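Input for the complex:
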Amino acid sequence: MKTLDVPLKAKDYRSDIEPTWCPGCGDFGVVTAITKVMSELNIDPDHVMAVSGIGCSSRLPLWLRTFGFHSCHGRALPVAVGAAIANPELTMMVTIGDGDMFSIGAGHVPHAVRRNFDMNVFCMDNNLYALTKNQVSPTSREGRKGSLTPYGTIDIPINPIDLMITYGATFVAQTYTGNIKHTTDLIMKAIQHKGFSFINMLSPCPTYNKEETFKYYKPKVYDINEEKVHTDVSNRLKALEIAATAIDHFHDAEARIPIGVFYQVDQPVFNDKLNELKTRFKTQYGSPEKPDWNKLFDEFTA
Amino acid sequence: MAIDLTIKIGGEGGEGVISSGDFLMQAATLAGMQVVTFKSFPSEIKGGYALAQLRVSDEKIYSQGDGFNVLVAFNGEAYEVNKSLLKPGTALVYDSGEEADFTPEELPGVIMYPVPMSGLAKNELKNYIVKNMVALGAVSELFKIPMESLRESVKKKFSRKGDDIVNLNYDALNAGANHVKNNLKKTDPFTFPAPKPKQDVIIIEGNEAVAIGAAMAGCTYYGAYPITPGTSVGNYLSNFILGLGGFVYQTEDEISALGTCLGASFAGAKTLTATSGPGLSLMSELIGLAVMAEIPVVIVDVQRGGPSTGMPTKHDQSDLLQACFGTHGDAPKIVVAPINVEENLYLTIDAFNLAEKYQSPVILLTDASMALRVEAVARPDMSKVKNIYREVAKENPENFQRYVVTPSGISPFAIPGKKGQAYAATGLEHAENSGPRTNPETRVIMTDKRWRKFDNVEKEWTKNELEGDADAEIGVISWGLTATITKEAVARLRKKGKKIKAFYPRLLWPLPVDAIKKFTDSVKTVVVAEANYQGQFAELIKMKVPIHDKLVKVNVYRGEPFIPVEIEKRLEEIIAKK
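Predicted:
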């Protein structure tokens, strides 16, 4: 992580472009938290890249004074992976929504995870598609009505926490964006974690989601680390046990919603392994900076 | 008289047909000859009919030839497939004896050389795997292919596996050669040209040439997803790119292959992905993103028979329109096509330069036959290669705007890590500062800017080739591998005293309109030869140049390249009608 000699305030990490989100959108809390963390860590914004796909939350990189790539629907992870390989010094954030992450781009997720890239994926989960005006998403509760499912969806939602632990992400957490302090703390932990960090961010959509609102979440969420329900975050089975309850609230009015760090382990990251490979081969043609081309061409002579 | 000999080897996939062709190629090149190869194999790993064809001459040759002089049949299927082509005067070297799976009939005028390839390998050498080397030994003895050259290439290939393996292969070569010496009498007129001094060449396949060109261009990131026949570009590159500071990353699909390239290119790397038709289809959306966000990237489409899965191992030139137009919206891009293996190398370097200069996706079209074709190419001279890198903004620029409107349409690039250049690229229509914008003025200005970049490509990158008689009334246009085959047809016609001229572009899109118009205006009939059903390049020309009333399309779409005599005959007919 590249840091600055002269610190910047949180607002200095914001670009001049005004957010187009609806008033009351849960995603505002994420911008506030990200810029706060960058300021606290003194991160050099010229060495930060925020990559997104398409959707309301994916506009986020445009609001930051860092490098950003607002790519195509579902394709944030490949873009982030390519940039991370080409420039390992970048602090990499992927700021996307539940549609990008678990629907159109779901095929990319396990492959970025299993390589353990040192990147931070912040999934702003509003349980629906908002930019296209209210359709159900893979994280919508059964029975939810959307413009394409006016009768209420008969689909079973996926459980993002459960899924990401199973895929093998080395940092898996959940936050609720109505609690900016909690969101900020988790983003701080994610960025400081070396490896693939995933935070599912319960981020209410005030325009289309009349069920999972701030009012809905506030009494239900509980911090599993603070309440000492989960103290050894390297315990994968325990993490999965708690994760299994993460979407119980969809069908159980009494169920509480776990937030906090579910799982965190240290594992070798992709770019360190790639560096080892590059070191192993760096004298193959003399040096990568000034290769002896004839040595390469000699491999193709008769 | 020039020697012009074509040997075709056929057999079951997996029994060394393709490697036999490679050994002959190497041996012929070591002996200083001109060689063109053609290979074809089934989609299956084992089984199915595979063929390797080798044409050698002591003079310059372009194509794989019209047919063959010698057929080497490893099995009954190879014999059956080629039986109708065994004309009087051709020679057949075939697997004979108790271990062979067939016995050919007596064909009129065909010279027959029975060689117990399977039998000698199994019984004498105790190893069936060297059947192809027995055959090569026999072929070498029959047609005066220098045994020393053959042994040298065998040694090079197998020395890593130890002396025992090298010696086993030597023994197999000898067994085949001795069988001919002791049992057969040569009655055909075919011989290899006399050996000449060894040239300073590299022997490379089409896909290998692309990989080498990419390395020479400074490519440090390759997004790879396996697809026949494009995969081997990545295979080859992965053998040497780490030593050059780069990496081949195998992705989960073609979308990711291009997506990672765009991310890496955004971060400053020169990037490549190679694919084939189905992969190009999947990449379409992200090609549009590269256009909109102005990110340099090179995409190689090794074309195969489509649509859908089509014929994955077969030759076709039918992705041209997809390459030019396969993206939604008004999306300008560059499409280029090399005509031979050597150009696969140098046009790949050019493709990188074009991508970098114009901050654009560049699609380089080759095909399944080109991918496997082997050519001896003069050893590249790195000191003569000029690599371009995108124009980059100064550090700490005043009021930096990533998409600042310029007369050329090209705006200085920003590289993450550089001071004061931060911006967010987006696939949304945007203003000069990259902020999303949909007002009519911005839309028009930015669309114009993106297209303006390519106004002068035709003048700035001139690789068109013109040949033939200035006063000819018939002009033929052709691209990619078909251009190389057309060259041979044109040479033959001119040798016969027929007047003809030809135009072979390398830049296909944007269409080099001025050069094509000049050419087509100068003739009464325009023949466009290409390997697809629709006549895709002819249609492309018709969009921009009014040649409708003098156009003749000549097409093959059977999964194999043209043979020169097909083009020669069609052109001859057209000339005769005039």
